[in-house]
Amino acid sequence: MKLTAEKAQELLSDPFEAHDVEFLVTDKVISKDGSVWVKVVPYITARAVQQRLDDIFGLTGWRNEFREVKGGQMCGLSLLIEDQWITRWDGAPLTEIEALKGALSGAGKRAAVQFGIGRYLYAIEPYFINCQLLTDKSECTANYVLIRHDTSENESTYLSAQWETPELPSWALPQADFTPYIEAIESALTKTELTKTYRSAIKFADALGRKDLKEKVEAARKAQFDNIEIETKRERKAKIESLNRKFKSFTKELESAENETVLELAFKKIKPELYGLCKESTLNAEEYQNTLNQIKQQQISRIQGA
User: Which residues contact residue 174 at a Cβ distance below 8 angstroms, ignoring those fewer than 6 apart?
Assistant: First the structure.
């Protein structure tokens, strides 16, 4: 079966197994209380990228071309899709350890991202991990890190520590269940909540390069938006009906006042309650207030004429 561009994109963008994802320390921090933290971000190994390309295109369906540039390497990754070679370029600087090898590996991985390989990892927020201090590297049972600690303006020492590999979010794993994100949209009770759940779901669907998931997210959002609109109108109608019933009781209370003192007390009690009900029903209280004022004046005239 011939590999179509759409199918190639889906296969290229698929999440990797957790063991193919490694984490890079991008920052090290010593807090005021002496605790040690590292900031880490996920990345795909070069071997995992190469295996993904072999699995999809075989040994003859992809190739790399490298060019040396000032301070690093450029990689042009070419893929054979629908009998056409498609090439995308990206580069990486020389690294501190094994400078050339690091630059070649980095450029190859970045070029692969241009085709969607591992691109979903950019949607994962950095992890901040509390480290466990060690007396010696031989004690390390997890990921080792050496952190410089400035003890004074002119003196510093190095602390040995280890950090545990974080777990990837469920959506960033193969065969991940995307149902919770759809269910979150479908259970949103307000437009604000719907917007929040929608943005989260569409962010991950987009990061995965999954057109089918994006379509499901959009469909779920539209359906729930319509449901919220219907429920909002129903609730507003019910509140208006309740307000109108309450307003009738207000008018009766004013009309039954025996004297001006009782009338004024009733009017002062009704006024804030009326404003509260109108606000809850998103109605302008002015018209209701004007009606109450008229009833009050009419009742005063009756009392004084009696």
Answer: 14, 15, 16, 17
The one-letter code for the residue type at 205 is A
Write the pLDDT tens digit of every residue in 49-79.
999 999 999 989 999 999 988 888 899 999 9
Q: Rounded to an integer, what distance in angstroms lies between the CA atom of residue 21 and that of residue 63?
A: 23
CA dist 107 and 116 (Å) reads 14
The span from the CA of 67 to the CA of 77, in Å, is 12
Instruction: Write out the two tokens for 244.
Output: 């109108």
Tally of residues, the chain: 306
Q: How far apart are alpha carbons 165 and 168 in whole angstroms?
A: 9
Nearest to 52 by CA among 102, 111, 2: 111
Q: Quick one: average pLDDT of 175-183?
A: 84
Q: Where in the chain is the domain with CATH 3.30.390?
A: 5-131
**Per-residue buried b or exposed e for 169-205, using 16+ beta carbons within 10 Å of the residue's own CB:** eebbeeebebeebbebbeebeeeeebeebbeebbebb
- Summarised one tens digit per residue, pLDDT across range 222-261 is 999 999 999 989 988 888 888 889 889 988 888 888 888 8
| Domain 5-131 grouped into CATH 3.30.390 | yes
Cα angle value 77/48/178 (rounded, 5°): 105
Q: Which positions ≥6 away from 70 have C-beta within 8 Å?
A: none
Tokens of 277: 């009900």
- For 2-22, the pLDDT digits (tens) are 788 888 988 898 899 988 999
pTM of the model: 0.65
Burial 255-270 (b: 16+ CB within 10 A, else e): eebeeeeebeebbeeb
For the chain, give the mean pLDDT. Answer: 89
